[in-house]
TrEMBL record:
Cofactor: pyridoxal 5'-phosphate
Pfam families: Aminotran_1_2
Keyword annotations from UniProtKB, A to Z: Amino-acid biosynthesis, Aminotransferase, Histidine biosynthesis, Pyridoxal phosphate, Transferase
Domain Aminotransferase class I/classII large intervals: 29-348
Native source organism of the sequence: Shimwellia blattae (strain ATCC 29907 / DSM 4481 / JCM 1650 / NBRC 105725 / CDC 9005-74)
EC number(s) reported in the record: 2.6.1.9
This protein's name: Histidinol-phosphate aminotransferase
InterPro entries: Aminotrans_II_pyridoxalP_BS, Aminotransferase_I/II_large, HisP_aminotrans, PyrdxlP-dep_Trfase, PyrdxlP-dep_Trfase_major, PyrdxlP-dep_Trfase_small
Catalytic activity: L-histidinol phosphate + 2-oxoglutarate = 3-(imidazol-4-yl)-2-oxopropyl phosphate + L-glutamate
Modified residues (N6-(pyridoxal phosphate)lysine): K211
Length: 360
């Protein structure tokens, strides 16, 4: 028996999530990971690195609770929202017994985390408008403990209909958690479900500092939920999930000054997104540009493969979505600086027109 055979069978069979950094590329225009395009500056103030940090740093929890409009007891901070996904599955799903439900095309870590833990995955694809198939979810609900819904959805960029979310929450009451992934909510804050937590004790919300706060490298995420759910998650979280420097910078980002800076960053992204979207709709090789409530835009081309490779070779790294259900021919473009957006537009303008691609 070789060493690999000692691993769990589900891990041996697992296809890992292909993050932007794993996929690589050599470029100077990185528009494949939905990051803020420019670094923000912080100075470390905490120097007691000889001591272990708090499991849940008080300043971070209190400031995020105030920002999100919830009680501190309803907040858990973790190593990115990705750890929040894993903690929820670990705390609520019995391996080999329970299942999660998710609705592709959507974020890939829901299934990867579940498969890693040995929890079954049930897919209920969204409809042609990327909205929830509520009847399909209801049919799959028996034996499912968690339903993941990403809104705004990655990679499609649209919000899930709030009436459908209410129907889903009523449908799952007493049966399963509904996890609303709000990683991109700062780009459409009016759509947050945080105000629903009191009404729905089985609602859980995932947040992050990676996107609008421009701190993807910090790896700091949040779970908002009832105090009961938070206490269960605290039973399975690592003893010291956040390092002292991470907690230090997160606390600074959540001050009034830090939040004001974030909102200025969001305003810049929204202006650039409007310019990018308008120009993409006039670009000959683009078949469709989808409306977005996020910091990225999904586009469909008649033939995306050569366009993706051409831009890749020019150092413009986009995210290929061809393997996602229903996204054949689609590329996801992060909204970068004004100059980066122009680089993308100039490069795409040199691709064969839609008519040429369809009628070679």
């Amino acid at each position: 028996m070789n060493t690999e055979q000692l691993a769990r069978a589900n891990v041996r069979a697992l296809t890992p999530y292909q993050s932007a950094r794993r996929l690589g590329g050599k470029g100077d225009v990185w528009l494949n990971a939905n990051e803020y395009p420019q670094a923000v500056e912080f100075q470390l103030t905490q120097q007691t690195l000889n001591r272990y940090p708090e499991c849940q740093p008080g300043a971070v929890i209190e400031r995020y609770a105030a920002y999100a409009g919830v009680a501190p007891e309803q907040v858990l901070v973790s190593r990115g929202a990705d750890e929040g996904i894993e903690l929820i599955i670990r705390a609520f799903c019995e391996p080999g017994e329970d299942a999660i439900i998710y609705c592709p095309p959507t974020y890939g870590m829901y299934s990867v985390s579940a498969q890693t833990i040995g929890v079954a995955c049930r897919t209920v694809p969204t409809d042609e408008n990327w909205q929830l198939d509520l009847a399909g979810i209801q049919a799959q609900l028996d034996g499912a403990k968690v339903v993941f819904v990403c809104s705004p959805n990655n990679p499609t960029g649209q919000l899930i209909n709030p009436d459908d979310m209410r129907t889903l929450l009523e449908m799952t009451r007493g049966k399963a958690l509904v996890v609303a992934d709000e990683a991109y909510i700062e780009f459409c804050p009016q759509a947050s479900l945080a105000g629903w937590l009191a009404e729905y004790p089985h609602l859980v919300i995932l947040r992050t500092l990676s996107k609008a706060f421009a701190l993807a490298g910090l790896r700091c995420g949040f779970t908002l939920a009832s105090e009961t759910v938070i206490n269960l998650l605290l039973k399975v979280i690592a003893p010291y999930p956040l390092s002292t420097p991470v907690a230090d910078i997160a606390a600074q980002a959540l001050t009034p000054r830090g939040i004001a800076a974030m909102r200025e960053q969001v305003a810049t992204v929204l202006r650039n997104r409007q310019l990018l979207t308008e120009q993409l709709r006039q670009t000959a090789c683009i078949a469709q540009v989808y409306d977005s409530q996020t910091n990225y835009v999904l586009v469909r081309l008649a033939d995306s493969d050569p366009a993706f490779k051409s831009l890749w070779d020019q150092g413009i790294i986009l995210r290929d979505q061809n393997k996602q259900p229903g996204l054949r021919g689609c590329l996801r473009i992060t909204v970068g600086t004004r100059e980066e957006c122009q680089r993308v537009l100039d490069a795409l303008s040199k691709q064969p027109s839609l008519t040429t691609a369809e009628n070679p």
